[in-house]
Protein: Extracellular solute-binding protein
Organism: Metabacillus lacus
Amino acid sequence: MVNKKWFAGIGISVMLLGSSLAGCSSNSGGEGGAGSPQEGEKVQITLAGWGSSPEETKLLDEVIADFESENPDIDVKRDTIADQYMDVIKTRLIGGEGPDVFYLDAFEAPGLIETGVVEPLDSYINEDFDIADFEEPLIQAFQKDGQTFGFPKGYSTLAMFYNKKMFEEAGLEVPATWEEFEEAAKNLTDGTNVYGFGASPELARLYHIAESKGGKVATDNKATFADPKVVEALQPIIDMHNVDKSAAEPKEAGANWTGEMFGQGKAAMVFEGNWAIPYLQSTFPDLEFDTAELPTIDGNKGTMAYTVSYVMNAASEKKEASWKLISYLTGKEGMEKWTSKGFELPSRVSVAENLGFDKDELRGPLVAGASYSTVWADDTNLPIIFNNFNNQYVSAFLGERPLDQALKEAQDQANSEIGD
């Protein structure tokens, strides 16, 4: 049985809500159904999302204005949820006051889709929408049992950011394999002044590495990250910190995150996402840096991907208009404008090519990783698994106890909570 503890005990309420609204929510977008305006009338739909930078907000407003210009019978009301986004969305869905369209992070998607409150979109799609154009790992994060529940509006993978000046002074080539990476990190380390690698000791950044030796972080909705193969895959990072002294987490260097640690010159290499590029360029304008795909492990490429989709409320009474908005925002025209500034990378291959991101000096390695990425999404219990892993893994990273012992305790605790 799938555990829904993460949903704060509201799964039954949501299922009851879905049943009560089934009669008024069955429209699949056909003419004359719910959400089809009568001649001369305007349909208003609500789009909910979280807050973003002023630049991103301005750009989204422009994209929506373009949509409204092309669809004069539809008015889009934006609803920005500044704090506790998922808690607010869940509460509104239970109360029958959910938005028509809303953001859904891949991390939260499996659990929310399981409850039945997200509308399957397959019956709305026509050939012009071109699903095959999406990067496959990204769209798979929003699919279940052969149905598609959302389309990714953008994404970022992880790439290796490296300090060009430090590499040149050390006479080093950019590492392509994990062994080369470890060796470069040792050579670039200068006591506690500069660490070769600025590490983020959390599962969201380590998932693909954890599974690189054939182990599984989670199996059948249970934590299995104490698997010896997972321990083997993660041990090199522990050893970089405790044996080679070539890695450190940001707070050990007086920084808040690895991007800041890198920008301050306290780390020669970090694994970061697209968001770090504008941050570094604006905050550390004199920093000479470049990016590369993450080093291979046993000859295999790997990286993480983080993505958010637009989804439709299954209880919306304006499904036709809602689909028009989703299909515009994630279609080629809308996505090209939305991703043109580089805040997010286009989840459509053709748009990335049109914008030149696949060949961009800094973003090219991030785009290259999309096709083989591990999306930060797994099952309905990932939040429980994630929290317990992080709570104990950091103690091993800091040398307080062996990694296998820390992960065994974390796995037992996670599965105890899941079992409850």
About this structure: The CA atoms of residues 172 and 311 lie 46 Å apart. Residues 1-35 have pLDDT under 50 and may be disordered.
